[in-house]
Automatic annotation (TrEMBL):
The chain crosses the membrane at residues 5-22, 28-46. This is Lmo0937 family membrane protein. Keywords: Membrane, Transmembrane, Transmembrane helix. It holds the Pfam family DUF5670. It comes from the Bacteria. InterPro entries: Lmo0937-like (IPR043727).
Length: 50
């Protein structure tokens, strides 16, 4: 489950970067996805460290 969560987080960050750097307007939802992705990555790092 952790690997899938990490993969989803990486995909969300890539989608955010493409929309942000590409200049596409996606509204506020893309920032919500970015926050979810960062939380998922942090959880993976914290759980992996213990």
């Amino acid at each position: 489950m952790g690997n899938i969560l990490y993969l989803i987080a990486v995909i969300l960050v890539i989608i955010w970067a493409i929309s942000f750097l590409g200049g596409y307007y996606t509204g506020g939802i893309i920032h919500v996805l970015l926050v979810i992705a960062i939380i998922a990555i942090l959880l993976k790092v914290i759980r992996g460290a213990t």
